[in-house]
Structure formats: C-alpha cells, structure tokens
Design goal:
By secondary structure, the protein is an alpha/beta fold. It has helices at about 15-30, 40-50, 65-75, 90-100, 110-140, 150-165, 180-190, 210-215, 235, 250-265, 290-295, 300-305, 325-340, 350-355, 360-375, 390-395, 410-425, 430-435, 440-450, 450-455, 460-464; strands at about 10, 30-35, 55, 80-85, 105, 170-175, 200, 215-220, 230, 240-245, 265, 275, 280-285, 310-315, 345, 380. The chain has a five-stranded parallel sheet with strand order 2-1-3-4-5, with helices on both faces. The two termini are about 60 Å apart.
C-alpha cells in the first residue's frame, strides 16, 4: 500500500473538464491525486508509482480504460479500480468486473455517489492490506521463542491468532517463569498495533507513588525535584500496547486509578488537572488467583471484570514435559551462540535428569540452567556435572514408580518442595532461591499443598 500519509489516486480521462472536476472532488475528500490525460500517460504513471485507487474512463483513444485496468492489476494487484463510462452496456460491465474492477460508474454521476464508492474501495484495500500484514506477522511469530508442541501450547497458539487482531483487554494467568510476557509480546506482534510501541512494567516492583508516576507521569512541580513534565507509560505507549505484569500486586488506591484510566480512556498526570486521551491496548498478567483475591476483598471486582475480557492461561512446564527436550536444545543453542560455543549438545543422561526434574521455576528456570551449563561446558557435550548442584542433588529425591504404583506430578512437586525445605532447615527464602521461584509463589504452593508446618515463617530473622 502507498506509504503516503493520505490515500493516493490516479484519475484517467481524455476529457479535461471531467478529469479536473473529479480530481477536485477527490482532493477535497482527502486524497492525493495525480491526473493522466489519456491511457498512455496512465500506463507511464503506473510503471513508477503504486496508487491506492485508479479511476479511469472506459472509452479513450488509443489505450482504453480496459487496458489501464489490466495493466494496473498486473503491476499492483491490491490497487482498486473504478471504471467510468457514458455508454454503459451489460457486457462491458461484466468484463470490467471479471478483470478485477471494484465498481462500474455511469456518467453523469452524482458527487455523493462517487464519494461513497471511493470510501468503500479504500476501505476494502485497507482491510486486504491488514490481512496481508497479519499473515506476515503470523509467519514472523514462528520465529518467536514461544516454543512447544504440547496440546496445551498448541491450543494457546491457536487462541492467540484469534485474540491478537482485536483490541480486547487480555488477562494472562500462569505461574512465575511460564512466559507470560512472551505471550503478551506475541499478541502485540500479531496485532494491528505491531508497528507501535510495546511497553511493560512489573507492578509489584514499585511503591504505590512510584507506580502512579511510572504509569501516568507527572507535571512540573508535582513534587520536589520534578522540574519538568514527564510522560508516563500510558502516554508513551499511545497507539501501542501496555503490559501490566503482576497486576495483582497493585494497592487498592492504584486499582481505582487504573480502573478509571481503562473506563475513560484518559489519564491524569500526577499534579495535573487535565485529562489526557490515550489509545492503548492493555494486557495484564498475574500469578495470583484474582477470583480468590476478589472474594477476599483485596482486588476490586469491577477492575477484575474490566481486565478479564479475554483470559489466557499459560501452563507450567510440569504440565508440558514433552516440550522439555525442545526447550532445552533451544536455550542451549541460544546461550552457545552468545558465548561463541557453537555445537553444544546434551548428553542423554543429562536430558533424562532434566526430564525428571519438576521445574518449580518453569521455563525461566530451564533457560537459566542451560545458560549455566553452556558457561561451564569444557567440550561440546553437556554432562550431568554441568547442571546446578541443587538440581543434581535432588534427583535422587524425585519420586519414581515404587511397587508398581505411580504418583501424580502434583504429589511429586509437593514431595520435592518438602525435601528442599528440610534441606534448608525451613528457611523459605533459601528454599525459594533453590527452587527458582519467589517467596510469594512458594507460599502459595505451600498453602495449595496444605503444608501447614512450612507456612510458619522460620526465616524472618534471615530476611531482616
């Protein structure tokens, strides 16, 4: 499509008055117009420029309107063509449409009729271009390291293809380290906003005042040291996508301010009084159970409904174990390229250990393990000794079939967490570090598995 800011049109007619009048109508409609006094001039113009729209008279000396139509479609298949004639017949109308004309306009025509047809033709071209761009982004998405062949991942990818082209708000759920931000970036890449900015913020990493400043910006003099006005992320992401990670960590008062921004599509800078319109797609993510938070009164129900227009759940790595070999090789190759150690591979026994490991830290933990292994590798093969000591140490404690009885993956994880806690003498901070998750995630797992003794805070002094 033309890269001009305004749609472009080529008007072709050997009657000067008719040509100039039509060009004037299109110019007033907001198009950039070029004129051709005959079919030959039109063909020359088409050789050098692509137009969004061509409006050509049918009956012209020498090169006819049909010739212009045919050459336009040969050079620029996406360009829409309107045929104009004072001598209409069914045969010529059918032939013009068969060759790809958008519409057949009969002289004398009404200006309103022309304007309506032009709008519809340009809209059709725009939609076709959007479809082409979407297909291109889908091809590009295959290059994103959002890998996996597990049924749950395949279903997630199919859902993304339907969700991404819309402007709907998306809530991404999943444990820490499952790749929620990567899902958000994929949605942005496949959306109509892909050419605009994707900005992300971890809502749990800021105090309430700092988070408000980061999201909404401030005016000069809003507080000590604020000498100049500052745009927040809502303004900076205008036209694009804003990813609110760990949205469940927001304070109640910040939830109110976020809700207002989503409802009104305006923000107000700290210290300001003016409402500033913003056009931003919101994608939020959390590892919390927001429905439970709503029930407990710690998360606003109206904000939850506003965010929860479309919900996507990213499965933990423990539920897609068939993807561990694929992800392991991908992350190892990625680290090897960065370190200049091309050709690294995993020994079968190493892959077996990885496949048995419960990965409480999910995909992020696996990526870190592969980077460490690549750094420590002396040759080209990653052996078990290149894995983290904590991972190797717990392999004997990962449960295996006993007396012909198999245990669930959930029970396996519970036993593994219990063993790590005993190893750390109940220190949850150390245990969470070994497990590759944060303390909040560990606490939720302990509560989920009803490990009451471990819920007692035994490391408050160590954290102090």
């Amino acid at each position: 499509m033309s890269t001009a800011l305004k749609p472009t049109a080529l008007v072709v007619d050997d009657e000067a008055i008719a040509r100039k009048n039509l060009a004037l109508v299109l110019t007033r409609q907001g198009l950039t117009v070029e004129q051709a006094a005959n079919g030959a001039e039109a063909l020359a113009a088409l050789e050098h420029n692509e137009f969004d729209l061509v409006i050509t008279d049918l009956m012209m000396t020498g090169v006819s309107g049909m010739d212009v139509l045919q050459r336009t479609k040969e050079l620029w298949p996406a360009t829409e063509v309107l045929m104009v004639t004072g001598y209409p017949t069914i045969e010529t109308a059918v032939e013009a449409m068969r060759r790809g004309a958008y519409h057949y306009l009969v002289k004398p025509y009404q200006i309103d009729e022309v304007r309506a047809l032009v709008d519809k033709a340009l809209e059709k071209r725009r939609l076709r271009q959007e479809v082409q761009e979407l297909r291109q982004r889908l091809r590009q998405a295959n290059e994103i390291p959002f890998l996996g062949e597990a049924p749950s991942i395949r279903q997630l990818k199919r859902t993304l293809e339907h969700v991404a082209p819309t402007d709907s708000t998306v809530l991404i759920l999943g444990e820490t380290g499952t790749g929620k931000e990567l899902v958000a970036r994929t949605i942005h890449l496949l959306s109509r906003r892909a050419q605009q900015r994707f900005l992300a913020i971890n809502c749990g990493a800021f105090t309430e005042d700092l988070l408000e400043n980061e999201l909404f910006g401030h005016e000069a003099g809003a507080y000590s040291g604020a000498q100049r006005p500052h745009k927040g992320l809502f303004e900076a992401a205008h036209g694009g996508t804003l990813f609110l990670d760990e949205v469940g960590e927001m304070s109640p008062s910040m939830q109110v301010k976020l809700l207002r921004a989503l409802q009104e599509r305006t923000i107000r800078r700290v210290g300001g009084t003016d409402d500033i319109p913003v056009d931003v797609r919101i994608i939020a993510a959390t590892n919390r159970d927001l429905q439970r938070e709503v029930a407990h009164g710690t998360f606003r129900q109206d904000l939850y409904f506003r965010l929860n227009v479309i919900t996507l759940e990213v499965p933990p790595l423990s539920e897609r174990r068939e993807d561990i070999p694929l992800l392991s090789h991908f992350f190892l190759a990625k680290a090897a390229r960065r370190l200049g150690k091309e050709g690294l591979c995993l020994a079968p026994e190493t892959l077996e250990i990885l496949h048995r490991y419960p990965f409480p830290g999910n995909v992020r933990e696996l990526e870190n393990i592969m980077e460490r292994a690549a750094v420590l590798a002396e040759g080209t093969t990653i052996l078990p000794r290149h894995l983290p000591p904590d991972l190797s140490a717990v392999q004997g404690h990962v449960q295996r079939p006993c007396h012909q009885q198999l245990i669930t993956l959930e029970e396996n994880e519970r036993l593994h967490i219990a063993w790590v806690l005993r190893h750390c003498q109940g220190n949850r901070t150390q245990a969470a570090k070994i497990l590759g998750i944060d303390r909040a995630s560990l606490w939720r797992k302990l509560k989920r598995y009803a490990m009451a003794d471990a819920l007692d805070d035994k490391d408050s002094s160590a954290d102090a």
